[in-house]
Amino acid sequence: MTDVLALIPAGIDTYRQPVVYMTEDCHICRAEGFVAQTRVRIDLRGRSIIAELNVVTKGAWLPSDHAALSMSAWTALAAREGDRGRFSHPEPAPSASQIRAKAYGARLTAADFTAIVQDTLAHRLSDLELAAFLTACTGDRLDEAETVALTRAMLEAGDRLDWGRARVLDKHCVGGLPGNRTSPIVVAIVAAAGEIIPKTSSRAITSPAGTADTMEVMTPVDLDEMAIRKVVEAEGGCVVWGGALNLSPADDHFIRIERPLDLDSTGQLVASILSKKAAVGSNHVLIDMPVGPTAKVRSHVAAAALGDRLVAVGHHFDLNVVLHVSDGSGPVGYGIGPALEAADVLSVLRREARAPQDLRARALDLAGGLLDIAAGTTGAGRGIAEAILDSGAAEAKFMAICDRQGGFHEPKEAPERAEVLAPHGGTLRAIDNRLIARIAKLAGAPRQKCAGVRLHARPGETLAPGQPMFTIHASTKGELAYSRAYAELHREVMTIAEGPP
Known about the structure:
EC number: 2.4.2.4
Shape: globular
Number of helices: 18
Radius of gyration: 24 Å
Structural class: alpha/beta
Mean pLDDT: 93
Number of strands: 18
Organism: Seohaeicola zhoushanensis
Distance between the termini: 76 Å
Catalytic activity: thymidine + phosphate = 2-deoxy-alpha-D-ribose 1-phosphate + thymine
Helix content: 40-55%
CATH class of the largest domain: Alpha Beta
Strand order of the largest sheet: 1-5-2-4-3-6
CATH superfamily of the largest domain: Nucleoside phosphorylase/phosphoribosyltransferase catalytic domain
Pfam families: Glycos_trans_3N, Glycos_transf_3
Number of domains: 4
InterPro entries: Glycosyl_Trfase_fam3 (IPR000312), Glycosyl_Trfase_fam3_N_dom (IPR017459), Glycosyl_Trfase_fam3_N_dom_sf (IPR036320), Nuc_phospho_transferase (IPR035902), PYNP-like_C_sf (IPR036566), PYNP_C (IPR013102), Pyrmidine_PPase_CS (IPR017872), Thym_Pase_Put (IPR028579)
């Protein structure tokens, strides 16, 4: 058949975007008029995907009668060695007209959002079309009704967990604060108090670490629904990667486009958070909103607007949403990067003298808030949380959760390190969240689990000339040099002023 090519795995990770590779002299490319970035439909044994075409130079690594599939495309088609796929032009995405309408300021209906979510999951929309949709939703361009409709469409497109409990607790941080790894500590405290808290978390896309990346340093997080149920039924809580489940699956596609563009959409953020909380079966959710000049939420006015929308939309899904506004002026803890943040988490749970006190205090605030929700009290929860942590019960619960998830491992340290020194003396006034996160990423985080940054100074402290401000950790000399060069170029990562604090 002329529309058929042999399929082989390309061995290329394109995250969630299916990509197909064909040679420029491939007979299908020539006959069908396929060019680079064309959307191509591939059918195989009753399955079909829409993939983006990348064209390979004639005579390079790919035979002209073969098509190579990215890892996500190979998996989605359940392809096997020796398979032959049928290629064709896909029909235009039905929701493309709704996206254009939104771009021109129209209000979308529940059916419109459902169509967009369905086309997203079927890969019928290109990255350009998804970017247009998300851009059209930025700022306050989604009203409350549209936010509810988008949340519902995202929720109904995936699976939902039901714990059979009247009270299931959860917490979420809107992000933007490096090192703010409170979730493992909060889960341990709340579960030790006898509550149910099934915490699903994300991996980092553009940040140095997500909660799942940090937990994976210490225990497996890639658990399916049955395994998660066993952990929660035995220990009351878990900290796992949500990507292993089909909970609000469209959200990962939106985030993949949204984060590199640094888009800020209240409606989209609310839909992202609440669709996943409702999908995991939570009904009481504490939302941490760090506010600071280089955090995701920049002002208290913005925090109030986001908080009002979270509470209002949560009511539509029987979610009791409680808000916690916190200081987002700088990083939390000492470590930035999976293993470095894991070390901070463990030092707090183990009650070590060197434990970062800001991370401890934030975790106690959040755990206390959840215990107040559970008991219907105000303020008493923090004291209970502190007693649980100080008694060692939280550490024991954390280790039990790790054991149930597949076993505990101590974090390892990177082999390559370099100190970045203060260029002059003075008081450290501020640390730029975005720049310090960038330095940690250039060092290899989060893919290199031991990579990142360890801070030696905090705002308000006095630095002497040449005193270490932070140490870069890397797995290779090349990554270390790359990150260090960026740090030397961006000295404004730490603002040092003369005079007392």
